[in-house]
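Dataset card, provenance and construction

Sequences and ligand SMILES were collected as paired inputs. For each pair, a complete structure of the chain with the small molecule in place was predicted and serialized as structure tokens. The example below shows a pair involving NAP. Curators did not alter the output after generation; any descriptive sentences attached to a record were derived from the structure itself.
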Amino acid sequence: MTKIGIIGTGMLGEAVGLHLLKSGYALSVFNRTKSKTENLVKNGATVVNSPMDIAKNSDLVITVVKDAASVKQVSFENDGILDGNHDGLVVADMSTVNPSSAKEISKKFQENGIDFVEIPVMGGPNVAIDGKLVLMASGNKDAYETHKNIFETIAHKNFFLGDSGAAHSIKLAMNLQISMLALALSEGITLTRKAGFEPEKFLEILNSTYFKTGMSENKAHNMIKNSFEPTFMLKNMTKDLGIINEAAKSFNADLPMAKLASKVYQDAVEDGFGEIDYTGILAYLKKISDN
Ligand SMILES: NC(=O)c1ccc[n+]([C@@H]2O[C@H](COP(=O)([O-])OP(=O)(O)OC[C@H]3O[C@@H](n4cnc5c(N)ncnc54)[C@H](OP(=O)(O)O)[C@@H]3O)[C@@H](O)[C@H]2O)c1
């Protein structure tokens, strides 16, 4: 059976790893902060000391780290993936990065004889734990086909989209939806509360219309209870809005709302709201509205 290694066992990497273990795969894991591998080890994973050791031990390495800088660090710096290169090694990056960074990372792996695919995903740890992510892939199609059964274990919908950079262009358009939905809901709830109505009524009416969403039907009920247990941290959504705006600039796309949203989320991070769920943008709006 294919040996898999995961580098980055934060919220998403841990859930993907637990699901792969449950599905019967042999898994080795590395995380910069070792304590975050404990749950995986309890469930049968082997912990190793460096990204190089992950590469040596694996046929397929999946990186799930914060951003492009951290992907480059675990890939190309001392004791990184390149140092553990061997015949047949495939690297798949699940982190959300700029399409231009994805192309750069892909090129460097290919130049070093390592097949590389980008596999950004939609959905958080809450669905990853059951293999219910939606996966967008691009880059080396042969490498994607070789490990398609694993990508289909991780995600219940898989889309191969073309050359390197393609998957992240779509992924960024997806995160634009999520950031705007969370803001629109939060502003609606804030307006309703300030007008003296219970937000439950706002949600009941919204969810009776064509304009309801998965977020208004599900997460919104936690939001109005002030429950922001993170599945995707607000600081990471802010990171993605930064990438969305950089990518928009490079594609000559003018996205006025993305620029505004980026500022609102950035202000929330600076005000101490970064470590809660991104839907905690509601708590930030409450704070600035009550001032
Ligand atoms: N959560 C989601 O719903 C979701 C969905 C789709 C995509 N994503 C993307 O998946 C990636 C991980 O997200 P997450 O939610 O799991 O975030 P997270 O819980 O904050 O985990 C971030 C991970 O990146 C590692 N990391 C950060 N900087 C690093 C560096 N310089 N070198 C090595 N490792 C580094 C962290 O290691 P330490 O523990 O040592 O800090 C941790 O393992 C991000 O790119 C995110 O945008 C997340």
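Derived descriptions for this record:
The first helix runs from residue 11 to 22.
Residues 8-13, 31-33, 36, 64-67, 70, 73-74, 95-96, 121, 124-125, 231-233, 236, 240 surround NAP (CB under 6 Å).
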